[in-house]
Amino acid sequence: AKSSGGSQYRFFSKELNASIQRMVDMEASLRRAFDENEFYVAYQPQIDIESGATIGAEALVRWNSKEYGIVSPADFIPLAEQTGLILKLGQWVLEEACREAKRWERAGRTSLTISVNVSAKQFKQPDFVDIVKGILHSTGLNPAKLCIEITESVVIDKLMFTLKLLDELAAMGIGISIDDFGTGYSSLSLLRQLPISMIKIDKSFVAEMVEERSVRAVVAAMITMTHHLGITVVAEGIESEQQMAWLREMGCDKGQGYYIDKPLSAERMQARLKETPAI
Ligand code: C2E
Ligand code: CA
Ligand code: CA
Ligand code: CA
């Protein structure tokens, strides 16, 4: 195997080198992106499923790169995590999103909330609570209007630490949402132990509802179970009227997805808010 593997190895190594080189290049661009103002935040509207009223939005970061065009956060967030840049970026997104939500409030939409994704690295900074406090203070946003989205894996790792941190955030009035619910090690006891205000049913479930009756049953059970714990349910990735109708019937509280609206620029979001009735 060793003698015949030589050329194969060299080939593999070439490929690997190319992909490492691409990562290194992208990392350099990512670092520059900050100073070049290449990041912006998009806002995906969230609605109350029963009334259809817009109740807020999720902030989703975008990278408009000179070298790579529009890069998906699915591609650059992991890189930003590896390089530690996520701390600076995440803080910027949080501040930008809170500032925008404050604008909505000033425009008379006082009940809207803003959901912001927080990565594991960010969450584990010793001064995370102080950072959040500082941002709420500087933007003047009511803490009750902010919701922080974390994934199950963030919670499970270092549970005691997380519990203390989440308690502090919840005590400030900030909402805590479990993102991509159902894809990790979610457990009932976890939901009971932590001050969770919301779960977001992962879009893979919403997608598979269409084909699979069994997935519809699982989603219905998730909603019932979560409601018993006094937790609000958001479904993400809603793409059709049919999915919306099922979720409505199951009593799902809130929703977001292309069927409702795609992630919008701050300006487009403001325009949408002008067109939709105030709640
Ligand atoms: P996520 O938090 O699960 O966000 C939902 C993703 O689904 C977004 O992708 C959104 O654009 C997309 N989406 C919305 N509606 C639909 C739909 O109807 N169908 C389908 N198939 N997809 C839909 P996006 O914006 O590309 O973000 C990908 C992921 O990157 C996010 O997943 C989140 O984990 C991460 N991310 C985005 N912004 C941030 C951020 O500011 N900080 C951190 N730490 N992560 C972020
Ligand atoms: Ca999210
Ligand atoms: Ca999600
Ligand atoms: Ca996700």
TrEMBL record:
It comes from the Bacteria. Residues 23-277 form the EAL domain. This is EAL domain-containing protein. It comes from Paenibacillus glycinis. Signal peptide: none annotated. The keyword Transmembrane applies. Keywords: Membrane, Transmembrane, Transmembrane helix.
